[in-house]
Amino acid sequence: MHDIRCIVSACGSLDNSLYRVGVVDFCSGSIVGVCYGRNADDLPTPDKVAQLVKLHNIKYLRIYDSNIQVLKAFANTGVELMVGVPNSDLLAFSQFQSNADSWLKNNILPNYPATKITYITVGLEVTESHDNASALVVPAMHNVLIALKKVGLHKRIKVSSAHSLGILSRSFPPSAGAFNSSHAFFLKPMLEFLAENQSPFMIDLYPYYAFRDSPKKISLDYALFQSSSEVIDPNTGLLYTNMFDAQIDALYFALMALNFKTIKVMVTETGWPSKGSPKERAATPDNAQTYNTNLIRHVINGTGTPAKPGEELDVYIFSLFNENRKPGLESERNWGLFYPDKTSVYNLDFTGKGVIDMTNRSNDTNSNRTTWCIASSKASELDLQSAIDWACGPGNVDCSAIQPSQPCFEPDNLVSHASFAFNSYYQQNGATDVACSFGGNGATVDKDPSYDNCIYLTARGINKTATSNTTALADASRLERSECSWIPGFFLMTLISFIINRGYVFGASL
C-alpha cells in the first residue's frame, strides 16, 4: 500500500474565484483533494511545489508528516493542509503528553495560522503495520487533542487517523459491511473519539487493487465509474454502478452496525496508476485519467452514494507526483498527476465537466477561429504573480516584452503582464482550453488583445515575435519529458512548422 500519500481539492465557485482542489463548493460542500507524497529523490523543492499547487489552484493538500520546509513553503498560500503523525512516532506520542505538546510547539505553532492546517492524521493504516501500532493510535490521538486544547486549537484542527479498507472483514454486499473483529480492541474507543469530537472516519479506497486482484469477478468499467449495468445489493435492493460507491457504503453500514451513525466518512486516498508491470495491464494513463475525471465529476455532482444520497463526501486523490523510491510493483511509483519536472502525466479536468482532448482538435467546428488567452480581471494579485512566475520560468515563455522599456511593459500592472504571458503559453501549447486554465485565472477571447507595438502571438503566427527582436520559445520539453536548452529561432520555427504540418499539437500541463 501507499506509505506516503497526499491529497488535493479542486473546485470552483460561481463568482469565478479559485478552484478548490478536492471539492467544488458551488455544487456541494464536498471537496476533492490531492496527496503530496515525498518518497522520491527527484522531486522539486517544497517552494517550487507550492508554486505548482498555486498555479493549478489546489486548495487542499495532504502531507504525511510535519516537515518544516513544506509547512513554511505553504505559508500565506491559502492552501489547507492535512498533516500527519507517522507510525514511527506513535509510541512516543502515546506514552507521554509532553511529546505531543513539544511536537505541536515546535512543528505546528510556529507556522500556524500563516500555513492553514485543518487536520492532523495520527498514524497511517495502522491495521496494516506489523509493529502493533494499532494499540498506540488512540492514546496518541488523545494526547494530540489535549495538546491542541491547551492552545485553543481543538475546534479549528480536527484529529483523526487514516485506515485501509482492510479494516473491514466484509465489504460486499455493501449492506453486509462489517469491521474486522480482530481490531475491536481499539476500534470502539477510536469511534467514540471521532463521534465525540466530530472528526471524520478517514479511509483509503482503491478500486484499482480490487480489479487488479480479481479481474474475472470485477469489470474494469465498474471500477472506472463507466459501468452501464448495475450491481444489486440483495439485502437492500440498492443499485450500484461503480465500486467506489459500494466500498463507501460498506463502511457506512459497518459504522451503523456499531451504532455510530453520525460519523462522517472522508476518503483520504484514492486514485489510479498510469503505469505498471506487465501483469498490471490496467495501469495506463487513459485509465488513470478516466478514473480520476469520473471520480471528480461524481464528487462535484453531489449525488452521494446509494445508501447516503446527497451526502457530502471529501475525497483526496493520490497523488501529486510519481515517487521513484517506493518499493513494490511498477505501479507503486506511478500514481502521480505530475512528473517530477512538473509536467502533467495526463490531462485531468478538476471542474468535473469532462476531459479536454489535447491531442487532436481538427474536428472542432471552431478550430479555424483564432482565440487568445488573457488574465481574468477578478484574479487576485498573488495568483497572477504566481502564474507569471511559472509561465516565465518553468513554462518557458519569453517574457522579455513585458520588461521595463519594452513594447508590452505598459500598462504596468499584473493583469496586463499576465495576459501577455498567459497568451504566449496558450499559443505555444496548442491553444487548448487547458493551456489557458492557469487554475481558473485565464480566459479565452476572440478579440485580438494586441495594442500599439505590443503584438500578441497566435497559434498560426507563432513564429512571429511579440517584439521585433524577441522570439517565443516553445515548450519542447513536453514532447520528450526532458529539459532542453535555448533553441535558435530559425530551427525552432522550422520544427514548429514541421510539427503543425504533420497534424500534431503541443500538450499543455494542467
Automatic annotation (TrEMBL):
<dbReference type="InterPro" id="IPR017853">
    <property type="entry name" value="GH"/>
</dbReference>
<dbReference type="InterPro" id="IPR000490">
    <property type="entry name" value="Glyco_hydro_17"/>
</dbReference>
<dbReference type="GO" id="GO:0042973">
    <property type="term" value="F:glucan endo-1,3-beta-D-glucosidase activity"/>
</dbReference>
<dbReference type="InterPro" id="IPR044965">
    <property type="entry name" value="Glyco_hydro_17_plant"/>
</dbReference>
<protein>
    <recommendedName>
        <fullName>glucan endo-1,3-beta-D-glucosidase</fullName>
        <ecNumber>3.2.1.39</ecNumber>
    </recommendedName>
</protein>
<dbReference type="GO" id="GO:0005886">
    <property type="term" value="C:plasma membrane"/>
</dbReference>
<dbReference type="Pfam" id="PF00332">
    <property type="entry name" value="Glyco_hydro_17"/>
</dbReference>
<dbReference type="GO" id="GO:0006952">
    <property type="term" value="P:defense response"/>
</dbReference>
<dbReference type="GO" id="GO:0098552">
    <property type="term" value="C:side of membrane"/>
</dbReference>
<keyword id="KW-1015">Disulfide bond</keyword>
<keyword id="KW-0325">Glycoprotein</keyword>
<keyword id="KW-0378">Hydrolase</keyword>
<keyword id="KW-0472">Membrane</keyword>
<dbReference type="Pfam" id="PF07983">
    <property type="entry name" value="X8"/>
</dbReference>
<keyword id="KW-0611">Plant defense</keyword>
<keyword id="KW-0449">Lipoprotein</keyword>
<keyword id="KW-0336">GPI-anchor</keyword>
<dbReference type="InterPro" id="IPR012946">
    <property type="entry name" value="X8"/>
</dbReference>
<comment type="similarity">
    <text>Belongs to the glycosyl hydrolase 17 family.</text>
</comment>
<dbReference type="GO" id="GO:0005975">
    <property type="term" value="P:carbohydrate metabolic process"/>
</dbReference>
<keyword id="KW-0326">Glycosidase</keyword>
<feature type="domain" description="X8">
    <location>
        <begin position="371"/>
        <end position="456"/>
    </location>
</feature>
<keyword id="KW-0732">Signal</keyword>
